[in-house]
Amino acid sequence: MGVQAAIEETSSAVPVISDVTFAELSIDPYPTFKRARELAAIVRIAAANIMIATRYEDIMAMERDAETFSSVNPQSLVNKVMGHTMMRKDGEAHARERKAVEPALRPGAVKSCWAPKLEAIFDDVMAGFETNGEADLFTTLAAPMAGRALAEVLGFLDVDWQTMALWSQSLIDGAGNYSSDSEISRKAAEAARGVEQAIDRALAYHRENPNMSVLSSMIHADDPHTLDQIYANIKVAVGGGLNEPRDSILTLVLGLLENPDQLERVKADPNLWPVAFEESVRWISPIGMYPRRVTRDVIFSGVQLRAGDQVGLCVGAANRDASRFQDPDRFDVFREKKSHLAFGAGPHFCAGTWVARHMVGRLVVPRLFERLKNLRLRDRADVRIQGWVFRGPTTLPVVWDV
Amino acid sequence: MPNITFILPDGKEQGCTARDGLSLMEVALQNAVPGIIAECNGSAACATCHIVVDDALAPMLDPISEHESDMLDFTAAPRAPGSRLSCQIKVDGRVDGATIRIPAEV
Ligand code: HEM
Ligand code: FES
Protein backbone atom coordinates (compact mmCIF):
# COMPACT_ATOMS: atom_id res chain seq x y z
CA MET A 1 0.00 0.00 0.00
CA GLY A 2 1.41 3.39 -0.95
CA VAL A 3 0.94 6.80 0.63
CA GLN A 4 -1.97 7.56 -1.68
CA ALA A 5 -3.89 4.65 -0.25
CA ALA A 6 -3.14 5.67 3.32
CA ILE A 7 -4.12 9.33 2.97
CA GLU A 8 -7.90 9.22 2.75
CA GLU A 9 -10.74 11.66 2.68
CA THR A 10 -12.59 10.88 5.89
CA SER A 11 -10.96 11.84 9.13
CA SER A 12 -11.37 11.83 12.87
CA ALA A 13 -9.51 13.19 15.87
CA VAL A 14 -6.67 11.15 17.35
CA PRO A 15 -8.08 8.72 19.95
CA VAL A 16 -6.43 8.56 23.36
CA ILE A 17 -5.41 5.62 25.56
CA SER A 18 -5.43 7.07 29.05
CA ASP A 19 -5.67 4.07 31.38
CA VAL A 20 -2.14 2.71 30.97
CA THR A 21 0.72 3.91 33.16
CA PHE A 22 4.27 4.53 32.04
CA ALA A 23 5.43 1.69 34.30
CA GLU A 24 2.95 -0.73 32.70
CA LEU A 25 4.18 0.24 29.24
CA SER A 26 7.73 -0.40 30.30
CA ILE A 27 6.99 -3.84 31.76
CA ASP A 28 4.91 -5.05 28.82
CA PRO A 29 3.95 -2.62 26.04
CA TYR A 30 2.48 -5.23 23.72
CA PRO A 31 -1.13 -5.30 25.01
CA THR A 32 -1.24 -1.51 24.67
CA PHE A 33 0.29 -1.67 21.20
CA LYS A 34 -2.40 -4.18 20.21
CA ARG A 35 -5.18 -1.93 21.49
CA ALA A 36 -3.68 1.05 19.69
CA ARG A 37 -3.40 -0.91 16.44
CA GLU A 38 -7.05 -1.89 16.63
CA LEU A 39 -8.22 1.60 17.58
CA ALA A 40 -6.78 3.81 14.83
CA ALA A 41 -3.74 4.53 12.66
CA ILE A 42 -2.50 7.12 15.16
CA VAL A 43 -3.29 6.96 18.88
CA ARG A 44 -2.21 9.23 21.73
CA ILE A 45 -0.74 7.50 24.77
CA ALA A 46 -1.60 9.81 27.65
CA ALA A 47 1.00 8.48 30.10
CA ALA A 48 3.84 9.28 27.69
CA ASN A 49 2.09 12.29 26.14
CA ILE A 50 2.95 11.07 22.67
CA MET A 51 1.12 10.04 19.49
CA ILE A 52 2.14 6.69 18.09
CA ALA A 53 1.69 4.79 14.83
CA THR A 54 1.53 1.03 15.36
CA ARG A 55 0.46 -0.62 12.08
CA TYR A 56 3.00 -2.10 9.70
CA GLU A 57 1.53 -0.67 6.50
CA ASP A 58 1.10 2.79 8.02
CA ILE A 59 4.69 3.01 9.20
CA MET A 60 5.89 1.79 5.80
CA ALA A 61 3.79 4.50 4.13
CA MET A 62 5.22 7.17 6.46
CA GLU A 63 8.77 5.99 5.81
CA ARG A 64 8.15 6.30 2.06
CA ASP A 65 7.05 9.92 2.48
CA ALA A 66 9.88 11.76 4.23
CA GLU A 67 8.51 15.09 2.98
CA THR A 68 5.40 14.74 5.13
CA PHE A 69 7.01 12.72 7.92
CA SER A 70 10.35 14.43 8.42
CA SER A 71 13.32 13.50 10.59
CA VAL A 72 14.27 17.17 10.88
CA ASN A 73 13.44 18.59 14.26
CA PRO A 74 15.47 21.59 15.37
CA GLN A 75 13.92 21.56 18.85
CA SER A 76 14.54 17.88 19.50
CA LEU A 77 16.42 16.81 22.61
CA VAL A 78 18.65 14.67 20.42
CA ASN A 79 19.97 17.81 18.75
CA LYS A 80 20.41 19.52 22.09
CA VAL A 81 22.37 16.59 23.52
CA MET A 82 24.31 15.43 20.46
CA GLY A 83 24.42 18.38 18.05
CA HIS A 84 23.12 18.36 14.46
CA THR A 85 23.25 14.65 13.71
CA MET A 86 22.47 13.00 10.39
CA MET A 87 19.67 11.12 12.12
CA ARG A 88 17.74 14.39 12.35
CA LYS A 89 18.32 15.53 8.76
CA ASP A 90 16.51 14.78 5.50
CA GLY A 91 17.30 14.64 1.80
CA GLU A 92 20.64 15.77 0.43
CA ALA A 93 22.03 16.99 3.79
CA HIS A 94 21.42 13.54 5.28
CA ALA A 95 22.65 11.64 2.22
CA ARG A 96 25.99 13.48 2.13
CA GLU A 97 26.83 12.62 5.73
CA ARG A 98 25.55 9.09 5.46
CA LYS A 99 27.73 8.49 2.40
CA ALA A 100 30.85 9.45 4.35
CA VAL A 101 30.04 6.94 7.09
CA GLU A 102 28.96 4.04 4.88
CA PRO A 103 32.30 2.61 3.72
CA ALA A 104 33.05 1.55 7.31
CA LEU A 105 29.78 -0.31 7.78
CA ARG A 106 28.90 -2.02 4.53
CA PRO A 107 28.90 -5.78 4.22
CA GLY A 108 32.24 -6.00 2.45
CA ALA A 109 33.92 -4.11 5.30
CA VAL A 110 32.24 -6.35 7.83
CA LYS A 111 33.47 -9.47 6.10
CA SER A 112 37.04 -8.42 5.36
CA CYS A 113 37.80 -6.20 8.32
CA TRP A 114 35.40 -6.45 11.26
CA ALA A 115 34.68 -10.19 11.31
CA PRO A 116 38.16 -11.23 12.51
CA LYS A 117 38.40 -8.33 14.95
CA LEU A 118 35.00 -9.11 16.45
CA GLU A 119 35.93 -12.75 16.73
CA ALA A 120 39.04 -11.86 18.76
CA ILE A 121 36.93 -9.68 21.09
CA PHE A 122 34.39 -12.49 21.47
CA ASP A 123 37.09 -15.03 22.39
CA ASP A 124 38.50 -12.67 24.97
CA VAL A 125 35.08 -11.94 26.48
CA MET A 126 34.24 -15.67 26.64
CA ALA A 127 37.55 -16.49 28.29
CA GLY A 128 36.51 -14.25 31.18
CA PHE A 129 33.60 -16.43 32.33
CA GLU A 130 33.48 -19.61 30.27
CA THR A 131 34.53 -21.93 33.12
CA ASN A 132 32.18 -20.46 35.75
CA GLY A 133 29.18 -22.67 34.98
CA GLU A 134 26.76 -19.84 35.65
CA ALA A 135 26.49 -16.18 34.68
CA ASP A 136 24.23 -13.26 33.96
CA LEU A 137 24.77 -12.95 30.22
CA PHE A 138 23.92 -9.25 30.32
CA THR A 139 27.00 -8.25 32.31
CA THR A 140 29.39 -11.04 31.32
CA LEU A 141 28.72 -11.30 27.58
CA ALA A 142 26.31 -8.90 25.90
CA ALA A 143 27.38 -5.56 27.39
CA PRO A 144 31.16 -6.04 27.06
CA MET A 145 30.82 -7.56 23.58
CA ALA A 146 28.62 -4.76 22.24
CA GLY A 147 30.69 -2.02 23.92
CA ARG A 148 34.07 -3.28 22.76
CA ALA A 149 32.81 -3.99 19.25
CA LEU A 150 31.42 -0.48 18.91
CA ALA A 151 34.63 1.16 20.17
CA GLU A 152 36.58 -0.87 17.60
CA VAL A 153 34.27 -0.12 14.67
CA LEU A 154 34.10 3.59 15.45
CA GLY A 155 37.90 3.81 15.74
CA PHE A 156 38.27 4.77 19.41
CA LEU A 157 41.75 3.82 20.56
CA ASP A 158 41.53 3.85 24.34
CA VAL A 159 37.93 3.59 25.57
CA ASP A 160 36.89 0.55 27.64
CA TRP A 161 33.44 -1.02 27.42
CA GLN A 162 32.30 0.27 30.79
CA THR A 163 32.91 3.84 29.61
CA MET A 164 31.19 3.11 26.28
CA ALA A 165 28.19 1.76 28.19
CA LEU A 166 28.06 4.79 30.50
CA TRP A 167 28.31 7.27 27.63
CA SER A 168 25.72 5.40 25.60
CA GLN A 169 23.19 5.27 28.43
CA SER A 170 23.81 8.89 29.43
CA LEU A 171 23.27 10.13 25.86
CA ILE A 172 20.11 8.06 25.48
CA ASP A 173 18.75 9.30 28.81
CA GLY A 174 19.59 12.86 27.80
CA ALA A 175 17.78 12.46 24.48
CA GLY A 176 14.69 11.25 26.37
CA ASN A 177 14.88 13.81 29.19
CA TYR A 178 11.47 15.36 28.62
CA SER A 179 11.11 16.42 32.24
CA SER A 180 14.40 18.41 32.10
CA ASP A 181 15.88 16.57 35.07
CA SER A 182 19.11 18.45 35.81
CA GLU A 183 21.09 15.38 36.87
CA ILE A 184 20.26 13.63 33.59
CA SER A 185 21.25 16.75 31.63
CA ARG A 186 24.53 16.97 33.53
CA LYS A 187 25.40 13.33 32.85
CA ALA A 188 24.51 13.67 29.16
CA ALA A 189 26.71 16.76 28.82
CA GLU A 190 29.54 14.93 30.54
CA ALA A 191 29.18 11.94 28.19
CA ALA A 192 29.09 14.27 25.18
CA ARG A 193 32.35 15.85 26.34
CA GLY A 194 33.87 12.44 26.95
CA VAL A 195 33.03 11.35 23.38
CA GLU A 196 34.49 14.57 21.94
CA GLN A 197 37.74 14.11 23.88
CA ALA A 198 38.03 10.47 22.77
CA ILE A 199 37.57 11.65 19.17
CA ASP A 200 40.22 14.38 19.64
CA ARG A 201 42.67 11.77 20.94
CA ALA A 202 42.05 9.44 17.99
CA LEU A 203 41.91 11.82 15.03
CA ALA A 204 45.65 12.27 14.47
CA TYR A 205 46.08 8.50 14.22
CA HIS A 206 43.25 8.11 11.72
CA ARG A 207 44.52 11.04 9.64
CA GLU A 208 47.90 9.39 9.23
CA ASN A 209 46.66 5.80 9.01
CA PRO A 210 43.59 5.54 6.79
CA ASN A 211 41.66 2.41 7.79
CA MET A 212 38.15 0.90 7.76
CA SER A 213 36.86 2.59 10.95
CA VAL A 214 33.96 5.03 11.00
CA LEU A 215 36.23 7.89 12.15
CA SER A 216 38.67 7.20 9.35
CA SER A 217 35.85 7.01 6.78
CA MET A 218 34.49 10.34 7.94
CA ILE A 219 37.76 12.21 7.50
CA HIS A 220 38.96 10.49 4.32
CA ALA A 221 35.63 10.67 2.43
CA ASP A 222 35.42 12.60 -0.86
CA ASP A 223 33.11 14.96 1.01
CA PRO A 224 34.68 14.76 4.48
CA HIS A 225 32.89 15.54 7.75
CA THR A 226 33.66 18.77 9.60
CA LEU A 227 34.72 18.36 13.22
CA ASP A 228 31.19 19.27 14.39
CA GLN A 229 29.69 16.65 12.07
CA ILE A 230 32.17 14.07 13.40
CA TYR A 231 31.23 14.89 17.00
CA ALA A 232 27.49 14.72 16.31
CA ASN A 233 27.45 11.57 14.21
CA ILE A 234 29.82 9.65 16.47
CA LYS A 235 27.53 10.56 19.40
CA VAL A 236 24.60 9.13 17.46
CA ALA A 237 26.51 5.94 16.86
CA VAL A 238 27.51 5.71 20.55
CA GLY A 239 23.90 6.29 21.61
CA GLY A 240 22.41 4.05 18.92
CA GLY A 241 24.97 1.31 18.31
CA LEU A 242 25.44 -0.30 21.71
CA ASN A 243 22.10 -1.16 23.32
CA GLU A 244 20.63 -2.70 20.21
CA PRO A 245 23.23 -5.38 19.54
CA ARG A 246 23.51 -5.99 23.30
CA ASP A 247 19.77 -6.43 23.67
CA SER A 248 19.38 -8.54 20.54
CA ILE A 249 22.12 -10.95 21.72
CA LEU A 250 20.11 -11.56 24.88
CA THR A 251 16.75 -11.69 23.11
CA LEU A 252 17.98 -14.28 20.64
CA VAL A 253 19.48 -16.42 23.42
CA LEU A 254 16.23 -16.15 25.40
CA GLY A 255 14.01 -16.99 22.43
CA LEU A 256 16.02 -20.12 21.72
CA LEU A 257 16.33 -21.25 25.33
CA GLU A 258 12.59 -20.94 25.74
CA ASN A 259 12.03 -22.96 22.57
CA PRO A 260 14.40 -25.94 22.73
CA ASP A 261 12.83 -27.60 19.69
CA GLN A 262 13.69 -24.56 17.58
CA LEU A 263 17.17 -24.40 19.10
CA GLU A 264 17.85 -28.01 18.06
CA ARG A 265 16.74 -27.35 14.49
CA VAL A 266 18.87 -24.20 14.23
CA LYS A 267 21.92 -25.99 15.62
CA ALA A 268 21.38 -28.76 13.09
CA ASP A 269 21.29 -26.31 10.17
CA PRO A 270 23.63 -23.34 10.76
CA ASN A 271 22.16 -21.54 7.73
CA LEU A 272 19.22 -20.80 10.00
CA TRP A 273 21.23 -18.57 12.38
CA PRO A 274 20.69 -15.38 10.35
CA VAL A 275 16.97 -16.20 10.12
CA ALA A 276 16.84 -16.72 13.88
CA PHE A 277 18.49 -13.33 14.40
CA GLU A 278 15.92 -11.56 12.21
CA GLU A 279 13.13 -13.26 14.13
CA SER A 280 14.60 -12.12 17.45
CA VAL A 281 14.60 -8.44 16.46
CA ARG A 282 11.09 -8.78 15.04
CA TRP A 283 9.87 -10.41 18.26
CA ILE A 284 11.44 -7.89 20.66
CA SER A 285 12.66 -4.94 18.63
CA PRO A 286 15.58 -3.25 20.44
CA ILE A 287 14.47 0.17 19.18
CA GLY A 288 10.75 0.06 19.82
CA MET A 289 9.98 3.54 18.59
CA TYR A 290 11.58 6.50 16.79
CA PRO A 291 10.07 9.91 16.05
CA ARG A 292 9.02 11.80 12.94
CA ARG A 293 7.65 15.33 12.63
CA VAL A 294 4.58 16.09 10.50
CA THR A 295 5.36 18.91 8.06
CA ARG A 296 1.84 19.73 6.78
CA ASP A 297 -1.78 19.27 7.76
CA VAL A 298 -2.72 15.86 6.47
CA ILE A 299 -5.39 13.20 6.91
CA PHE A 300 -3.40 10.03 7.37
CA SER A 301 -5.26 6.70 7.32
CA GLY A 302 -8.36 8.48 8.56
CA VAL A 303 -6.70 10.53 11.29
CA GLN A 304 -6.23 14.29 11.14
CA LEU A 305 -2.60 15.33 11.73
CA ARG A 306 -1.37 18.92 11.91
CA ALA A 307 1.90 20.48 10.79
CA GLY A 308 4.30 20.34 13.73
CA ASP A 309 2.81 17.20 15.30
CA GLN A 310 5.31 14.61 16.52
CA VAL A 311 4.51 10.97 15.82
CA GLY A 312 6.37 8.01 17.29
CA LEU A 313 6.79 5.24 14.73
CA CYS A 314 6.34 2.19 16.93
CA VAL A 315 8.19 -0.47 14.99
CA GLY A 316 8.05 -2.69 18.08
CA ALA A 317 4.27 -2.70 17.59
CA ALA A 318 4.33 -2.98 13.78
CA ASN A 319 6.57 -6.02 14.07
CA ARG A 320 3.75 -7.72 15.97
CA ASP A 321 0.99 -6.59 13.60
CA ALA A 322 -1.24 -9.66 13.24
CA SER A 323 -2.30 -8.59 9.76
CA ARG A 324 1.29 -9.24 8.62
CA PHE A 325 2.71 -11.77 11.09
CA GLN A 326 0.70 -14.81 12.09
CA ASP A 327 0.63 -15.48 15.84
CA PRO A 328 2.86 -12.40 16.22
CA ASP A 329 3.67 -12.66 19.92
CA ARG A 330 5.35 -16.01 19.40
CA PHE A 331 9.11 -16.35 18.80
CA ASP A 332 9.14 -18.59 15.73
CA VAL A 333 12.24 -18.96 13.59
CA PHE A 334 10.18 -21.02 11.16
CA ARG A 335 7.41 -18.53 10.47
CA GLU A 336 6.72 -17.44 6.91
CA LYS A 337 9.67 -15.29 5.81
CA LYS A 338 8.70 -11.61 5.71
CA SER A 339 10.65 -8.42 6.18
CA HIS A 340 10.22 -6.49 9.44
CA LEU A 341 10.89 -2.94 10.59
CA ALA A 342 13.40 -3.46 13.41
CA PHE A 343 16.12 -1.62 11.45
CA GLY A 344 13.69 1.05 10.27
CA ALA A 345 13.01 1.69 6.58
CA GLY A 346 13.73 4.52 4.22
CA PRO A 347 16.68 6.89 4.20
CA HIS A 348 17.59 6.29 7.86
CA PHE A 349 17.56 2.50 7.58
CA CYS A 350 20.07 1.45 10.22
CA ALA A 351 23.59 2.14 9.03
CA GLY A 352 24.89 -0.56 11.37
CA THR A 353 22.62 -3.36 10.13
CA TRP A 354 25.37 -5.44 8.55
CA VAL A 355 27.67 -5.17 11.55
CA ALA A 356 24.83 -6.15 13.88
CA ARG A 357 23.73 -9.07 11.72
CA HIS A 358 27.20 -10.48 11.60
CA MET A 359 28.08 -9.88 15.22
CA VAL A 360 24.89 -11.23 16.75
CA GLY A 361 23.56 -13.72 14.22
CA ARG A 362 26.74 -15.23 12.83
CA LEU A 363 29.29 -14.85 15.59
CA VAL A 364 28.20 -14.30 19.20
CA VAL A 365 25.06 -16.38 19.63
CA PRO A 366 25.99 -19.40 17.45
CA ARG A 367 29.43 -19.61 19.08
CA LEU A 368 27.95 -19.20 22.55
CA PHE A 369 25.77 -22.27 22.05
CA GLU A 370 28.77 -24.15 20.65
CA ARG A 371 31.00 -23.33 23.60
CA LEU A 372 28.69 -23.55 26.60
CA LYS A 373 27.43 -27.12 26.87
CA ASN A 374 23.83 -27.69 27.87
CA LEU A 375 23.21 -23.97 28.24
CA ARG A 376 19.88 -23.29 29.98
CA LEU A 377 18.00 -20.61 31.89
CA ARG A 378 18.69 -20.71 35.62
CA ASP A 379 15.06 -19.85 36.30
CA ARG A 380 12.66 -18.20 33.86
CA ALA A 381 11.23 -16.18 36.75
CA ASP A 382 14.60 -14.38 37.14
CA VAL A 383 14.62 -13.05 33.57
CA ARG A 384 13.69 -9.36 33.30
CA ILE A 385 12.69 -7.66 30.06
CA GLN A 386 12.11 -3.94 30.16
CA GLY A 387 11.37 -0.81 28.18
CA TRP A 388 9.26 0.23 25.22
CA VAL A 389 11.22 2.98 23.41
CA PHE A 390 14.22 0.71 23.84
CA ARG A 391 13.41 -2.83 24.90
CA GLY A 392 15.43 -5.88 25.87
CA PRO A 393 16.34 -8.28 28.68
CA THR A 394 18.04 -6.43 31.54
CA THR A 395 19.23 -9.63 33.17
CA LEU A 396 19.59 -13.15 31.77
CA PRO A 397 20.89 -15.62 34.37
CA VAL A 398 21.96 -18.93 32.81
CA VAL A 399 23.78 -22.12 33.83
CA TRP A 400 25.78 -24.65 31.80
CA ASP A 401 27.89 -27.77 32.29
CA VAL A 402 31.59 -27.33 33.04
CA MET B 1 5.89 5.56 -20.60
CA PRO B 2 8.55 2.86 -20.97
CA ASN B 3 7.40 -0.76 -21.08
CA ILE B 4 9.35 -3.32 -19.14
CA THR B 5 9.00 -7.03 -18.58
CA PHE B 6 9.94 -8.65 -15.31
CA ILE B 7 10.93 -12.32 -15.43
CA LEU B 8 9.89 -13.70 -12.07
CA PRO B 9 11.84 -16.19 -9.96
CA ASP B 10 9.49 -18.98 -11.14
CA GLY B 11 10.16 -18.11 -14.79
CA LYS B 12 6.78 -16.43 -15.50
CA GLU B 13 6.74 -13.04 -17.19
CA GLN B 14 5.02 -9.91 -15.93
CA GLY B 15 4.81 -6.87 -18.20
CA CYS B 16 4.15 -3.32 -17.01
CA THR B 17 4.50 0.31 -17.92
CA ALA B 18 6.84 2.39 -15.80
CA ARG B 19 6.59 6.09 -15.02
CA ASP B 20 9.69 8.15 -15.80
CA GLY B 21 11.65 9.20 -12.74
CA LEU B 22 10.64 6.30 -10.52
CA SER B 23 13.26 3.74 -9.65
CA LEU B 24 12.89 0.22 -11.00
CA MET B 25 12.45 -0.86 -7.37
CA GLU B 26 9.43 1.45 -7.02
CA VAL B 27 7.99 0.14 -10.28
CA ALA B 28 8.41 -3.42 -9.00
CA LEU B 29 6.69 -2.60 -5.69
CA GLN B 30 3.80 -0.82 -7.45
CA ASN B 31 3.27 -3.92 -9.53
CA ALA B 32 3.73 -6.29 -6.60
CA VAL B 33 6.57 -8.08 -8.35
CA PRO B 34 7.53 -11.02 -6.13
CA GLY B 35 11.12 -11.17 -4.89
CA ILE B 36 11.65 -7.40 -4.59
CA ILE B 37 11.50 -6.71 -0.85
CA ALA B 38 13.25 -3.34 -0.58
CA GLU B 39 13.62 -3.23 3.20
CA CYS B 40 15.45 0.11 3.09
CA ASN B 41 13.08 1.72 0.61
CA GLY B 42 15.80 2.65 -1.84
CA SER B 43 18.71 3.74 0.36
CA ALA B 44 21.07 1.18 -1.18
CA ALA B 45 21.53 -0.26 2.29
CA CYS B 46 19.69 -3.59 2.38
CA ALA B 47 20.46 -5.45 -0.87
CA THR B 48 16.90 -6.86 -1.04
CA CYS B 49 15.98 -5.26 -4.38
CA HIS B 50 18.32 -7.36 -6.52
CA ILE B 51 17.63 -7.61 -10.28
CA VAL B 52 19.58 -8.92 -13.27
CA VAL B 53 19.41 -6.75 -16.38
CA ASP B 54 19.93 -8.12 -19.88
CA ASP B 55 23.16 -7.79 -21.86
CA ALA B 56 21.73 -5.08 -24.09
CA LEU B 57 20.70 -2.84 -21.22
CA ALA B 58 23.63 -3.32 -18.84
CA PRO B 59 26.18 -1.15 -20.68
CA MET B 60 23.64 1.65 -21.28
CA LEU B 61 22.95 2.21 -17.58
CA ASP B 62 24.89 4.50 -15.26
CA PRO B 63 27.85 2.58 -13.89
CA ILE B 64 27.72 0.65 -10.63
CA SER B 65 29.11 2.68 -7.73
CA GLU B 66 31.58 1.18 -5.29
CA HIS B 67 28.87 1.11 -2.64
CA GLU B 68 26.32 -0.63 -4.87
CA SER B 69 28.97 -3.12 -5.93
CA ASP B 70 29.76 -3.98 -2.31
CA MET B 71 26.06 -4.58 -1.61
CA LEU B 72 25.71 -6.76 -4.72
CA ASP B 73 28.30 -9.13 -3.28
CA PHE B 74 25.89 -9.81 -0.40
CA THR B 75 22.51 -10.32 -2.07
CA ALA B 76 20.45 -13.41 -1.15
CA ALA B 77 20.70 -14.78 -4.71
CA PRO B 78 24.27 -14.93 -5.98
CA ARG B 79 25.58 -12.02 -8.03
CA ALA B 80 25.45 -12.45 -11.81
CA PRO B 81 27.02 -10.38 -14.63
CA GLY B 82 23.92 -8.17 -15.05
CA SER B 83 23.20 -7.80 -11.32
CA ARG B 84 22.02 -4.39 -10.06
CA LEU B 85 20.15 -2.91 -7.14
CA SER B 86 16.84 -1.92 -8.70
CA CYS B 87 16.54 1.07 -6.35
CA GLN B 88 19.60 2.63 -8.00
CA ILE B 89 18.18 2.65 -11.55
CA LYS B 90 15.83 5.42 -12.60
CA VAL B 91 13.25 4.81 -15.30
CA ASP B 92 13.91 6.66 -18.56
CA GLY B 93 14.00 5.85 -22.27
CA ARG B 94 16.92 3.47 -21.79
CA VAL B 95 14.85 0.86 -20.01
CA ASP B 96 12.01 0.87 -22.57
CA GLY B 97 11.49 -2.67 -23.83
CA ALA B 98 13.95 -4.20 -21.37
CA THR B 99 13.53 -7.59 -19.75
CA ILE B 100 14.55 -7.61 -16.13
CA ARG B 101 15.06 -10.85 -14.25
CA ILE B 102 14.31 -11.28 -10.56
CA PRO B 103 16.87 -13.88 -9.45
CA ALA B 104 15.68 -16.81 -7.35
CA GLU B 105 17.17 -17.27 -3.90
CA VAL B 106 19.01 -20.54 -3.48
C1 HEM C 1 20.31 -5.14 16.40
C2 HEM C 1 20.98 -4.03 16.28
C3 HEM C 1 20.44 -2.70 15.79
C4 HEM C 1 19.13 -2.29 15.61
C5 HEM C 1 17.85 -3.08 15.85
C6 HEM C 1 19.20 -0.92 15.11
C7 HEM C 1 18.08 -0.15 14.78
C8 HEM C 1 18.12 1.09 14.17
C9 HEM C 1 16.96 1.84 13.74
C10 HEM C 1 15.51 1.42 13.92
C11 HEM C 1 17.40 3.00 13.15
C12 HEM C 1 16.53 4.09 12.50
C13 HEM C 1 16.27 5.26 13.42
C14 HEM C 1 15.47 6.36 12.73
O1 HEM C 1 15.04 6.17 11.58
O2 HEM C 1 15.24 7.42 13.35
C15 HEM C 1 18.86 2.98 13.22
C16 HEM C 1 19.68 3.98 12.72
C17 HEM C 1 21.05 3.98 12.89
N1 HEM C 1 21.83 2.98 13.43
FE1 HEM C 1 21.18 1.19 14.15
N2 HEM C 1 20.50 -0.53 15.02
C18 HEM C 1 21.30 -1.59 15.41
C19 HEM C 1 22.69 -1.62 15.45
C20 HEM C 1 23.52 -0.57 15.09
C21 HEM C 1 24.96 -0.61 15.17
C22 HEM C 1 25.81 -1.78 15.65
C23 HEM C 1 25.40 0.63 14.73
C24 HEM C 1 26.80 1.17 14.60
C25 HEM C 1 27.85 0.47 14.31
C26 HEM C 1 24.22 1.41 14.37
C27 HEM C 1 24.25 2.69 13.86
C28 HEM C 1 23.14 3.39 13.40
C29 HEM C 1 23.24 4.72 12.81
C30 HEM C 1 24.51 5.54 12.56
C31 HEM C 1 21.91 5.09 12.48
C32 HEM C 1 21.46 6.40 11.82
C33 HEM C 1 21.33 6.18 10.34
C34 HEM C 1 20.84 7.41 9.59
O3 HEM C 1 20.33 8.35 10.20
O4 HEM C 1 20.97 7.40 8.37
N3 HEM C 1 23.10 0.64 14.59
N4 HEM C 1 19.26 1.81 13.84
S1 FES D 1 15.87 -1.08 -1.62
FE1 FES D 1 17.41 -1.51 -0.15
S2 FES D 1 19.14 -1.69 -1.41
FE2 FES D 1 17.63 -1.19 -2.84
Description:
The complex is a heterodimer of chains A (402) and B (106). Chain A is of the alpha+beta class. Chain A has a single domain, classed as Cytochrome p450, CATH 1.10.630.10. In chain A, 51% of the residues lie in helices and 12% in strands. In chain A, the strands form 4 sheets. A 6-stranded mixed beta sheet of chain A has the order 1-2-3-9-6-4, with helices on both faces. Chain A has a 3-stranded antiparallel beta sheet with strand order 5-13-10. In chain A, helix 9 crosses helix 10, helix 13 packs across helix 17 and helix 15 packs across helix 17. By secondary structure, chain B is an alpha+beta fold. Chain B has one domain: Beta-grasp domain (Ubiquitin-like (UB roll), Roll), CATH 3.10.20.30. Chain B is built from 2 helices and 5 strands; from the N terminus they run ββαβαββ. Chain B has a 5-stranded mixed beta sheet. In chain B, a hairpin with a 5-residue loop joins strand 1 and strand 2. At the A-B interface, helix 7 of A face helix 2 of B. The complex binds protoporphyrin IX containing FE and FE2/S2 (inorganic) cluster.
Compose a concise summary of this entry.
The complex is a heterodimer of chains A (402) and B (106). Chain A is built from 17 helices and 13 strands.
Strand and helix map with partners:
The complex is a heterodimer of chains A (402) and B (106).
Chain A: H1 3-6, E1 16-17, H2 22-27, H3 30-39, E2 42-45, E3 50-53, H4 56-63, E4 69-70, H5 77-82, H6 91-101, H7 107-127, E5 134-136, H8 137-154, H9 161-175, H10 182-208, H11 214-220, H12 227-240, H13 243-257, H14 260-268, H15 273-283, E6 290-294, E7 298-300, E8 303-305, E9 310-313, H16 315-318, H17 353-371, E10 373-377, E11 384-386, E12 392-395, E13 397-401
Parallel strand pairs in A: 1-2, 3-9
Antiparallel strand pairs in A: 2-3, 4-6, 5-13, 6-9, 7-8, 10-13, 11-12
Chain B: E1 3-7, E2 13-17, H1 24-30, E3 50-53, H2 66-72, E4 83-85, E5 98-101
Parallel strand pairs in B: 1-5
Antiparallel strand pairs in B: 1-2, 3-4, 3-5
Bound molecules: protoporphyrin IX containing FE and FE2/S2 (inorganic) cluster.
